[in-house]
Amino acid sequence: MSKMHAAALIDAARIRAGLTWADLAGALGAAPVWTTAALLGQHPMTAAQAAVVVEMLGLGDDVAESLQQQPNRGSDPTVMNDPTIYRLVEAISVYGPALKALIHEEFGDGIMSAINFTADVARRADPDGDRVVITLDGKFLDYRW
């Protein structure tokens, strides 16, 4: 079974069960952003993690097998049309060069790892309307010659 097909089954079963992504992450003892990405096909899970998910959601061994497979990371081009994803890309397009300059100024010549990496999403109350707070936390990797 493809990871895309498994992700659709997982999301439908999660909704039917009345579970949140955070509920599944809690059951795995893993970060919500990582868990959600893994369940949507972007990371492989261990056999034990996959077993927990399929048991909670009443899904079969085929889904567990898919969860354990190495993914093809990245997004389907049609996903890029989603307004939330498009705005995230827009934010990086606008602020990416400034963030790059500030990283280089603070750390030197290098990059932020997307492998040794965590991400988090939080809500912050604001009188003008609640704010979305996204934290990207990656290890600095210096360029070495």
Automatic annotation (TrEMBL):
Which UniProt keywords are given for this protein, alphabetically ordered?
Lyase
Tell me which EC number(s) this protein carries: 4.2.1.104
Q: Kindly identify the residues recorded as the active site.
A: 87, 90, 113
Q: Does the keyword Nucleus apply?
A: no
Q: Which residues form the Cyanate lyase C-terminal domain?
A: 74-145
Please name the PANTHER family in this protein's record: CYANATE HYDRATASE (PTHR34186:SF2)
What NCBIfam families does the annotation carry?
A: cynS, PRK02866.1
Protein name as catalogued: Cyanate hydratase
Which organism is the protein's source? Citricoccus nitrophenolicus
The gene for this chain is cynS
